[in-house]
Every structure is written in C-alpha cells, then in structure tokens.
C-alpha cells in the first residue's frame, strides 16, 4: 500500500486529490496539512511513502518543507513530489536541489496523476514533460558548475554513461537496452552513481548531470 501525505493550503485541492487517491486499492492518504510546517510534523508522525507538497504555502513553503524532510534521517524513505500551478517558476529548480523527487502540474489528467504517484513510490524521478523541457532550457546558457564536475571523477565510465542516460529521461530498462547490458546491471550502475555522488534519487542525478556539464542541453 502506497501511503500519501497531502500538503496544500487549499482545502478544495486537498479534497480532490484525496478522493482520487483513496479510490485506488493500492494507495491511501494518511494525513493532510495546510502548510509546510504542519506537513513536516505529519511526515514525522506518519512516515508516508510520498509527500505531495504545494510549492507556495503560508508559514513554511514547499521548498523549505522539502529541505526539512530531506534533512531528517528518519524521513529518508519519504519521496517529496512538488505540486505547482505554473509548470515552472523561479522556485521549482530550488525545490529540486533541496531534494524533491519531482514535480507535477495541478492540471494533470487523473490517470496521469495516479501513474505519477506510483512512479514516485518506486523511487524514480518524476518530472512533468513541460517542466523537464523548461528545466533543460534553463541550463542552455549556464556554464558547468566546477564542484559538480569534480564529483564525477569518482565514477567509472559505465556509471557516467548511465548517469547521462538517466538525465535524458531513460528508465533502467531503456538504459539496459542502450548500453547492451541487463536491467539488473543497469540498475546497479545507477545506484552506484547515486551513492558516489550522494544523490538522494534519480531527480538529483539529473541536476548533477546538467550542473557538471556531463549532459549539454541543446535547443531544437
């Protein structure tokens, strides 16, 4: 059973998501919070698998709530998914760097929303296509970050290749096919890269890949 915490200051939004999630046999909403501070407290109390967190809230916003959840060792298994109305604003990348596993736009179709919750529960990075495109575009004019480039030196060639493919949005099965290895071996390369780079999840691998210059985005 996938346990979900809803953190949003709009009761109507929370009730809509709750009705959708609770109708599924494999998903249950364990708690709701109206601001980030309450959300962090409830995360500590209920230990959900997924925390769906609005990016803009009173008291404590979604970025700070994400930061607090990620920093708490007791909440290491909680995957934070940011909810946003705007696709990509100035706060989205900050939340990703703070440790968010991904983002969803609130006008997402119900079936896509449910699929996204299940994807996040597996620990996979979750970025809505509109957000991914804009996030990549943001890097086009930015030079590589020296610290991130240095971190890559500890990776093997195959691990670097796996990180590159993760940043391109490929799943482990797709990475395996591209590298002509088994899915288990592909997962091993990805997991070892995450450990060496101190990445919480695949979403942070994407950040590192672009910040380091390992992947260079190009406009069509």
Question: SSE layout and pairings?
Answer:
Layout: E1 2-7, H1 11-22, E2 27-33, H2 36-46, E3 50-54, H3 62-71, E4 79-84, H4 92-98, E5 102-105, H5 110-121, E6 126-127, H6 129-139, H7 146-151, H8 157-167, H9 172-179, H10 183-197, H11 202-212
Helix pairs in contact: 2-3, 3-4, 8-10, 8-11, 9-10, 10-11
Describe this protein's structure.
With 220 residues, the protein is α/β, with parallel strands linked by helices. It has helices spanning 11-22, 36-46, 62-71, 92-98, 110-121, 129-139, 146-151, 157-167, 172-179, 183-197, 202-212; strands at 2-7, 27-33, 50-54, 79-84, 102-105, 126-127. It has a six-stranded parallel sheet with strand order 2-1-3-4-5-6, with helices on both faces. Helix 5 (110-121) links the parallel strand 5 and strand 6.
Structure, briefly:
The chain is of the alpha/beta class. The chain has helices spanning 11-22, 36-46, 62-71, 92-98, 110-121, 129-139, 146-151, 157-167, 172-179, 183-197, 202-212; strands at 2-7, 27-33, 50-54, 79-84, 102-105, 126-127.
